[in-house]
Amino acid sequence: MSGQYGRKTLPGKQTVQCYIGLGSNMGDSRATIAEALERLSELPGVVVEAVAPLYRTAPVGYADQDYFLNTVARVNTTLTPRQLLAGLQQIENDLGRVRVIRWGPRTIDLDILLYGQQTINEPDLQVPHPRMGQRAFVMVPLADLNPEIAVDGERARVLARRLAGEQEITRLD
């Protein structure tokens, strides 16, 4: 996805590079993801550096639903993981996200995939995001942005190539 991201700077502050997963399968998913990216770029303390292409992907976990559009954004942030999570959840709420069925249909889903090198294991926040290394809809766009980043002890490009052969995923952009 292209956009006017990365123009804002965070002068004089320590930043952390993060990766955010975005997905949607309700309504105009392309427009919703674009709006979510715009709102993400407007969060104080967040600069969106790059966004991977959009992918059309089969649902995982709960199969009785429409296909998803997915992408990954690379951001720099001065926010703590909790502050970033709160910002992402506010964007989801503003864009009509309703949590009814686990892994079910959604207008928008925003997940912290990686927060620098940190590992966080709390009931409502797990980083690296659980199961990301098993999902093509995360690994393929992540590999577009950083093919050499390690996930589950393997390079993103290796995981992406293997998962793309096992799971249905089609690049749209």
UniProtKB/TrEMBL annotation:
It comes from the Bacteria. It holds the Pfam family HPPK. GO terms for molecular function: 2-amino-4-hydroxy-6-hydroxymethyldihydropteridine diphosphokinase activity; ATP binding; kinase activity. It catalyses: 6-hydroxymethyl-7,8-dihydropterin + ATP = (7,8-dihydropterin-6-yl)methyl diphosphate + AMP + H(+). Its EC number is 2.7.6.3. Keywords: ATP-binding, Folate biosynthesis, Kinase, Nucleotide-binding, Transferase. InterPro entries: Hppk (IPR000550), Hppk_sf (IPR035907). GO terms for biological process: folic acid biosynthetic process; tetrahydrofolate biosynthetic process. SUPFAM superfamilies: 6-hydroxymethyl-7,8-dihydropterin pyrophosphokinase, HPPK. CDD domains: HPPK. Residues 102-113 form the 7,8-dihydro-6-hydroxymethylpterin-pyrophosphokinase domain. The keyword DNA repair does not apply. Pathway: Cofactor biosynthesis; tetrahydrofolate biosynthesis; 2-amino-4-hydroxy-6-hydroxymethyl-7,8-dihydropteridine diphosphate from 7,8-dihydroneopterin triphosphate: step 4/4. This is 2-amino-4-hydroxy-6-hydroxymethyldihydropteridine diphosphokinase.
